[in-house]
């Protein structure tokens, strides 16, 4: 029986599933960790710097296992892998609510971050690059916008739970809630093209019967070739620098509470931050398709510099904090949006999964280095000014990395490495 044309390509249903899954894992779990720090410290007197080290441990686990994630997703049934991953991530998050020693956070950070590698980092970009050969940047932007939207809803809810029910209950309710929603989403929507007998969206539009037999030839370079180029290491550097920028999000609640003395307003600011991520993801996704990944990335770094200047010199009242952290979220969205787009722009799609996973080591290293540094700067100086100056310098270096990477790409093409 011939297959009828579907008005909606299944790629868009996969994108819907990714929006929900990544939104819950990234916007609901990963980005809410900072909301708990002040309350835990007030209750258990662990020290924000000491507690922040669990973020570094999570990043170290990511550093170790990230290169394997793309291979595991390719080798095994993707739904099985992602269900196991969300159980590890959300289950560990819920178990934080039972901890009394900082070692509990250190130990549970291991399974939580291992699961998060798949849910929040790798599965989305890999599946989108598999399913979308047209509107790739827009699809990634929509996915990251969903993460911002879900985070914008979840962050104030979690903040209110911390205030009304305590940080322990907030951990448990959030982790269990994510499990209840995410597992059915994965079962219903997550597939690979071969599972449906389809070519990716935009590959063959006029003859779906041919789409089932036509071999897809992916342009670009292989991982072994990419790792010998300056562009690859510039991309790793960019990932490190922009993730170091975004890592400050874990300290936003403490930064805001230090100024306003309000946990509830800190939750509101986290919601504003997530709205900024939502808008930024859509804008950067659209711009990357229209003006290219390079120009969009340079624009994002410029906006990041403006944000740091606002926080350093003008963050004295709520209106400025709202504006600055909206922009902060806007720029932070570039981690999830521009990272994948820059990777495919520089190296193509031939070996996209392994190249993206390996280059993303820069993300993991950033978490190991920057998160505790920010925490200890605050712990020892009672101010985040030193951290903000550090981030401003990193954004300038990130601009250099972008320019160098695309110069190196020109050399790759000239040397015939692309095929």
Helix content: over 70%
The number of helical segments is 18
Main sheet specs: none
Low confidence ranges: 1-5, 206-215
Question: What is the assembly state of the chains in this entry?
Answer: single chain
* Shape, principal axes of CA atoms: globular
Q: What would you report as the Rg, rounded to the nearest angstrom? A: 21 Å
Explain how this protein is built.
This protein is mostly helical and 419 residues long. The chain has 18 helices and no strands. The chain has helices at residues 10-29, 37-44, 48-75, 78-95, 102-131, 136-165, 167-189, 193-196, 208-211, 223-226, 230-247, 252-260, 263-290, 293-313, 318-347, 352-359, 361-381, 385-414. The longest helix has 30 residues, at 102-131. It is globular.
Sum this structure up briefly.
80% of the residues lie in helices and 0% in strands. It has 419 residues and is mainly α. The chain starts with 9 loop residues before the first helix and ends in a 5-residue tail after the last helix.
What are its keywords?
mainly alpha; 80% helix; 419 residues; globular
SSE layout and pairing:
Elements: H1 10-29, H2 37-44, H3 48-75, H4 78-95, H5 102-131, H6 136-165, H7 167-189, H8 193-196, H9 208-211, H10 223-226, H11 230-247, H12 252-260, H13 263-290, H14 293-313, H15 318-347, H16 352-359, H17 361-381, H18 385-414
Helix pairs in contact: 1-5, 1-6, 1-7, 3-5, 3-16, 3-17, 4-5, 4-7, 5-6, 5-16, 6-7, 6-13, 6-15, 11-15, 11-17, 11-18, 12-13, 13-14, 13-15, 14-15, 14-18, 15-16
């Amino acid at each position: 029986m011939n297959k009828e044309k579907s008005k909606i390509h299944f790629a868009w249903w996969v994108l819907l599933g990714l929006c929900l899954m990544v939104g819950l894992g990234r916007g609901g779990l990963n980005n809410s960790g900072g909301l708990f720090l002040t309350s835990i410290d007030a209750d258990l007197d662990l020290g924000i710097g000491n507690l922040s080290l669990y973020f570094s441990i999570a990043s170290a686990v990511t550093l170790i296992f990230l290169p394997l994630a793309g291979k595991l997703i390719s080798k095994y049934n993707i739904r099985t892998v992602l269900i196991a991953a969300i159980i590890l991530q959300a289950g560990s998050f819920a178990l934080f609510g039972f901890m009394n020693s900082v070692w509990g956070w250190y130990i549970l950070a291991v399974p939580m971050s291992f699961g998060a590698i798949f849910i929040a980092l790798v599965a989305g970009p890999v599946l989108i690059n598999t399913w979308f050969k047209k509107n790739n940047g827009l699809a990634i932007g929509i996915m990251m916008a969903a993460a911002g939207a879900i985070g914008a809803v979840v962050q104030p809810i979690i903040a209110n739970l911390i205030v009304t029910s305590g940080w322990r209950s907030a951990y448990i309710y959030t982790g269990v809630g994510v499990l209840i929603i995410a597992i059915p989403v994965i079962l219903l929507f997550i597939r690979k093209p071969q599972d449906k007998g389809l070519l990716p969206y935009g590959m063959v539009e006029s003859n779906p019967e041919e789409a089932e037999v036509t071999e897809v030839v992916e342009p670009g370079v292989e991982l072994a070739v990419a790792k010998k180029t300056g562009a690859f290491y510039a991309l790793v550097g960019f990932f490190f620098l922009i993730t170091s920028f975004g890592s400050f999000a874990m300290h936003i609640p403490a930064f805001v509470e230090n100024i306003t003395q309000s946990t509830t307003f800190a939750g509101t600011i986290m919601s504003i931050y997530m709205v900024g991520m939502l808008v930024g993801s859509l804008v950067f996704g659209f711009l990357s398709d229209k003006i290219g990944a390079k120009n969009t990335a340079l624009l994002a770094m410029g906006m990041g510099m403006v944000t740091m200047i606002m926080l350093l010199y003008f963050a004295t009242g709520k209106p400025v904090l709202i504006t600055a952290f909206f922009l902060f979220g806007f720029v932070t969205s570039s981690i999830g949006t521009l990272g994948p787009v820059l990777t495919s722009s520089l190296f193509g799609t031939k070996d996209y999964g392994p190249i993206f996973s390996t280059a993303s080591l820069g993300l993991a290293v950033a978490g190991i280095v920057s998160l505790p540094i920010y925490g200890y700067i605050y712990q020892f100086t009672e101010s985040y000014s030193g951290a903000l100056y550090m981030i401003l310098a990193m954004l300038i270096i990130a601009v250099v990395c972008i320019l160098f990477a695309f110069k190196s790409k020109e050399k790759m093409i000239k040397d015939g490495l692309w095929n």
